[in-house]
Specification:
This is Spo0E family sporulation regulatory protein-aspartic acid phosphatase. With 68 residues, the protein is mainly α. It contains two helices and no strands. The longest helix is centred in the C-terminal third of the chain and has 33 residues.
Length: 68
Amino acid sequence: MKDKTKLLDELHALRLKLLETAEARGSLTDPEVLAISEAADQLIVSLQQLQKEELTRIRSDDQQPSPS
C-alpha cells in the first residue's frame, strides 16, 4: 500500500487538475471532470483506510500490557 504522504501528494495534484479541467470545460458534469473526481474519491478512500489502520494499531498498542 502506498504511504500517506504520496497519497496526499497525488490527491493535491488531482485537486488542481480537477479545478483546471472544470474551468476549461465549463462544466462539472463533463466526463473528463467526472473521471478526475472519481480518481480523487478513490484516493480519499485509500487515505481513510490508512487512517483507520493507524488508529487501530495505536489503540492496539495502547492496550498491550507494559513489560515489567
